[in-house]
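Slide 14.
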Amino acid sequence: MPKTYPGQESSFVSSGAILAVSDYFDLMPNFQKKVKEWEMDEELDTLRQADGSIYVLPGLHEEIWPDYTFEIRKDLLDEQGLDLPTTWEELQDVIAKVQERHPDMKGISDRFEGLSMLNLAAVSYGTQSGGSWGMTTMAEWDEDSDSFIFCGTSDNYKAMVTMLRGMVDAGVLDPDSFTQDEDTAVNTFTTGKSIAIGTNSQYDVTYETTMKETLGEGNFEVVKILQPAGPAGALIGGTRLENGIMISAKAADDPNFVAMMQFIDWLWYSDEGEEFAKWGVEGTTYNKDADGTRTLVDDINYNGLNPAGDKDLRVEYGFSGGVFAYGGTTELLHSMMLDKELAWQEEMAATHTQKEIDPPAPLDETQREQATLLLTPLQDYVMQETLKFITGQRDLSEWDTYVTECEAKGVSSYMEILNAARATYVENNG
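Slide 15: predicted structure.
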């Protein structure tokens, strides 16, 4: 079952429905080689369940791969000699200055219901937010107390919410960002009615294509800015692990089990298999020069890589899809990027560092059941009230009341479970 994100396998462990894949790593030499050469043991440990086993085979990236950030109208900044922003404060400042000259324009009008923005902000403020985009455990690791603390009521979280509320109050962040659909946000940006919007490398291309039609080529310049830095630093969230594969426990009894694991190891973890999943068949979908440079054949396009091609590598041939093509070397990842995106990736690597990985705290079956009953309503409530605080529906003077409300919904009980799981892991693993 590919396209399984780490964490999604947890609910299937206790029933015995899925395979403890770590018991069969010996069948996967390509997987083992990359884990060893890229020193990924610490990241793999975050996937271990309470029994010490791993139940999902993750995609493996040689280096962490950032993507989501903001697209901004650089031409409007250039009018006033403004530099591209690198922090949240600078982002607010430059947009406010553009709005002084263009008062009819919205500032940030986001397309992801604000979830990507909250996730980015949370990382730079040392916390978690963004619902399914980043609010996973709802816990921050606190070095001083050597324990997890609840993120939704922490000082870091309050500072992040206060910053975003300030952007709304200043007219820089459109409060509709949290409720509007994607089409509305995209149309607002591509018709010249907003200054910035959430983006990733794929949308970067589509924005420009549409804006050439709506605004006219040469009448605009859009740039994907670096992920804004915050009080915690210029950080990239997440790990080098990607979504991966969950395998039914019944597969171990199949006479072709070993062959299946060897095939998975080749397709998802060998250099040859990963190149095949991304680029396709050499001589049919792409060509490779003597120096290893790959180019799509004349009639095939992928995300603007060969605009003259009238056949899509994904649609027509099935390669570079999200189910099979993830993970691999940085060289392979960069090989399918446009020059503009490649330059962004290189600048991110030079200016940002990966956020430290929280220590493992795997829950056993009983703990998981208890934690789920508490976590789901807590996540919903924190996100609900977060949006109220940011958009001005609730005054920040009510923060202490909000903290009390969260406590009443089981914060202490949830954190006790998480820290008990952490203590057990330390006791068992040293």
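Speaker note: The chain is about 45% helix and 10% strand.
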